[in-house]
């Protein structure tokens, strides 16, 4: 056995090590870096099983993710001995994960209540329609001023809502206050730090900003958004920065005892790994999807051209938050997999794509729009579907494969065009990474079609590197200030086409996109729109509850369209079994009911207009901090929260929309009222009066 001094150590200098758990769409990896070094020291990965129970549905096994993490960690750490290191040299862990993928589990048993719903899953189409039906003009951008995101199946809040509406186990767990929701980072940390035995239920700002539930200014869960989507705050994780010591692994695995100090969504992690830490820098990652992030610094840019505003990173609890504009492409590498598996045009994507496409000098005027599950940025059209157009008798598989590569490049240009309009400053160069970026032809096509240099990193997975930087920064072994000046080795691809040529091809691409729109049209059900309820409610509701013909002008009265409830032929509400008998009274008393048959006026204030009031609140006011004594918490705020969050929840994405009552007290002890009420409670009236300048009744 050799002494430690005799062991081969990279660069002749033994450094601290940082381990990274990298959960992607297709694979789970464990990567080990030497501090302040951009090259991987050791790594191991396993492919994940992805299930498609229906067209457009994508599910993963949460337990498989955990098992793969342990296996990958065992194998990667096992490689350290030959490199002159040991497990004890790993000073901290970082985590980077696929974003928007959503998991629900039982906080007492740790058992997942449903398979993880992947980020590119589109089962929530009908849920989106139901939410839009509750907003003025069905405006999908209505919540962007708060969350930075449009209402789309892409984001986690819709997936959470769908599970509560459709999965009995999730509904029961919510009723029993056992339910925990989270993105994959929350699931991993909770299990690593003890699970049911005191596991930390946390997330970081980058992942939280992808849920449609976080206020981008306060970096807190927004109570109005939580209420709109019917997600109780108790089931959501605490929001933390991207770089701080969160806790210690306590799962009995090889990672036991290691600290966790870095956590970012994979695209934000790639932005850090690419060293795009200055405002005006951008990176694009080519994987199953394609994600372009543009660093806007501490300035939050509101996009008016179809992009989303997201959190880029927050390097410490007291560090300033840095924002980014993002353009997300649903299908990039997925298009190559489609050509291989569905059309059988090739056998191996990695080795054949470039070779086959390179046999022709153009696409032969063929354009391929891979909108298999709709188009993301900057179109946000869930009704789009994939098309191949411009076919002639001379078209071959070579042309189609080359057109698929160009489709990735055209979609990137779509996003860059939108970014130029939003920021007013054209990008000078584009940093790229991702497995698909290994394709030389793709990188050259990208440079040709956007007209600026493309800089490809030598390390294809920059997400793991970015997570290592954040984790090492919190552990004191990887200074971010020094990393800003680090020069990452890269290959440069320069444009070789003229402006006229690239613009002509881009014009044809836009024509193809227009032809892809409007294919996925479905008849909207009562559950989505509530139209039948509105038509009959003038008679049915008035007769049943003696409702006055016009609503009060309370802001709460016009928040949403009210409970979407089915009625039988006698006008009686159809209630889900097990619902408390007083639920009818609660429906009767809720001022939001009135908007079931009275349309919201454009000049009428809604409860969302009270966002400014809630923006001033901090974690202490949410009761989620660890610094305040219980007696110091704001009772008045808790009262408002209880009223907002504990009204009857409406499950609208089911054949028979039903009312569901939470198993808890609606009003706080300071108000002292139960659910069985015969009149509008005084406390409720007081709160409503504080939120508006009009009376409730």
Mean of all residue-level pLDDT scores: 76
Supply the number of structural domains: 3
**Coarse shape:** globular
Q: Spell out the CATH superfamily of the largest domain.
A: ATPase, nucleotide binding domain
Distance between the termini: 84 Å
Total number of beta strands: 24
* Low-pLDDT stretches: 1-8, 523-571, 573-615, 632-640, 646-697
Let me know the largest β-sheet: 7 strands, mixed
How would you explain this protein's 3D organization?
The chain is globular. Helix 9 (266-273) packs across helix 14 and helix 10 (333-341) runs antiparallel to helix 12. The longest helix is centred in the middle third of the chain and has 27 residues, at 397-423. It is of the alpha+beta class. The protein folds into 3 domains: 4-264, Nucleotidyltransferase, domain 5, CATH 3.30.420; 326-461 and 478-516, Nucleotidyltransferase, domain 5; 526-691, no CATH class. The chain contains 23 helices and 24 strands. A hairpin with a 5-residue loop joins strand 2 and strand 3. Mean pLDDT is 76; it is low at 1-8, 523-571, 573-615, 632-640 and 646-697. 32% of the residues lie in helices and 17% in strands. A 7-stranded mixed β-sheet has the order 16-17-15-14-20-21-22. Strands 3-2-1-6-13-12 form a 6-stranded mixed β-sheet.
């Amino acid at each position: 056995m050799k002494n430690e001094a005799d062991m081969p150590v990279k660069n002749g200098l033994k450094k601290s090590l940082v381990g990274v758990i990298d959960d992607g769409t297709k694979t789970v990896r464990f990567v080990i870096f030497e501090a302040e070094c951009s090259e991987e020291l050791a790594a191991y990965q396993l492919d994940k099983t992805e299930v498609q129970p229906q067209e457009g549905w994508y599910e993963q096994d949460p337990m498989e993710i955990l098992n793969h993490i342990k296996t990958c960690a065992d194998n990667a750490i096992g490689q350290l001995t030959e490199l002159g290191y040991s497990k004890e040299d790993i000073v901290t862990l970082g985590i980077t994960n696929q974003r928007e993928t959503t998991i629900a589990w039982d906080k007492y048993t740790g058992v997942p209540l449903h398979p993880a719903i992947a980020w590119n899953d589109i089962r929530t189409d009908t849920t989106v329609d139901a939410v839009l039906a509750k907003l003025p003009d069905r405006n999908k951008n209505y919540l962007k001023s708060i969350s930075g995101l449009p209402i789309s199946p892409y984001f986690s809040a819709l997936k959470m809502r769908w599970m509560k509406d459709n999965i009995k186990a999730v509904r029961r767990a919510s009723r029993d206050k056992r339910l925990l929701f989270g993105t994959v980072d929350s699931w991993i940390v909770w299990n690593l730090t003890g699970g049911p035995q005191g596991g930390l239920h946390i997330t970081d700002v980058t992942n939280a900003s992808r849920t449609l539930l976080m206020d981008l200014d306060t970096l807190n869960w927004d109570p109005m958004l939580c209420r709109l989507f019917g997600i109780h705050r108790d089931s959501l994780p605490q929001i933390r920065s991207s770089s701080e010591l969160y806790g210690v692994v306590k799962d009995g695995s090889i990672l036991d005892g290691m600290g966790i100090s870095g956590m970012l969504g994979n695209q934000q992690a790639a932005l850090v790994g690419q060293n795009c830490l200055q405002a005006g820098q951008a990176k694009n990652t080519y994987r199953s999807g394609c994600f372009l992030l543009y660093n806007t610094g501490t300035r939050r840019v509101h996009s008016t051209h179809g992009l989303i505003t997201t959190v880029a990173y927050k390097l410490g609890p007291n560090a300033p938050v840095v924002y980014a504009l993002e353009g997300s492409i649903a299908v990039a590498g997925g298009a190559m997999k489609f050509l291989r598996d569905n059309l059988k045009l090739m056998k191996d994507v990695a080795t054949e794509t470039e070779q086959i496409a390179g046999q022709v000098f153009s696409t032969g005027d063929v354009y391929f729009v891979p909108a298999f599950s709709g188009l993301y940025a900057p179109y946000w059209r869930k009704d789009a579907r994939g098309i191949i157009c411009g076919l002639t008798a001379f078209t071959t598989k070579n042309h189609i494969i080359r057109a698929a590569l160009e489709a990735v490049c055209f979609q990137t240009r779509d996003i860059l065009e939108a970014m130029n309009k939003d920021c007013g400053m054209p990008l000078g160069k584009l940093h790229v990474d991702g497995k698909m970026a290994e394709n030389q032809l793709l990188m050259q096509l990208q440079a040709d079609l956007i007209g600026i240099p493309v800089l490809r990193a030598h390390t294809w997975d920059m997400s793991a590197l970015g997570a290592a930087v954040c984790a090492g920064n919190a552990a004191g072994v990887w200074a971010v200030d020094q990393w800003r000046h680090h020069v990452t080795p890269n290959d440069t691809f320069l444009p070789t086409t003229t402006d006229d040529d690239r613009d002509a091809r881009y014009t044809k691409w836009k024509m193809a996109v227009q032809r892809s729109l409007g294919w996925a049209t479905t008849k909207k059900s009562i559950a989505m729109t509530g139209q039948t309820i509105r038509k009959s409610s003038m008679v049915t509701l008035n007769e049943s509850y003696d409702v006055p013909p016009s609503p009060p002008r309370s802001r709460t009265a016009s928040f949403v369209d009210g409970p979407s409830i089915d009625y039988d032929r006698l006008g009686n509400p159809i209630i889900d079994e097990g619902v408390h008998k007083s639920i009818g009274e609660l429906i009767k008393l809720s001022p939001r009911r009135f908007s079931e048959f009275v349309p919201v006026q454009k000049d009428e204030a809604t409860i969302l207009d009270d966002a400014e009031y809630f923006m001033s609140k901090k974690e202490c006011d949410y009761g989620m901090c660890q610094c305040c004594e219980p007696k110091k918490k704001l009772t008045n705020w808790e009262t408002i929260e209880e009223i907002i969050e504990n009204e009857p929840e409406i499950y609208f994405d089911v054949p028979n929309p039903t009312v569901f009552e939470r198993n808890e007290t609606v009003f706080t002890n300071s108000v002292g009222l139960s659910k069985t009420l015969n009149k509008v409670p005084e406390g409720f009236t007081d709160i409503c009066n504080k939120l508006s300048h009009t009376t409730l009744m």
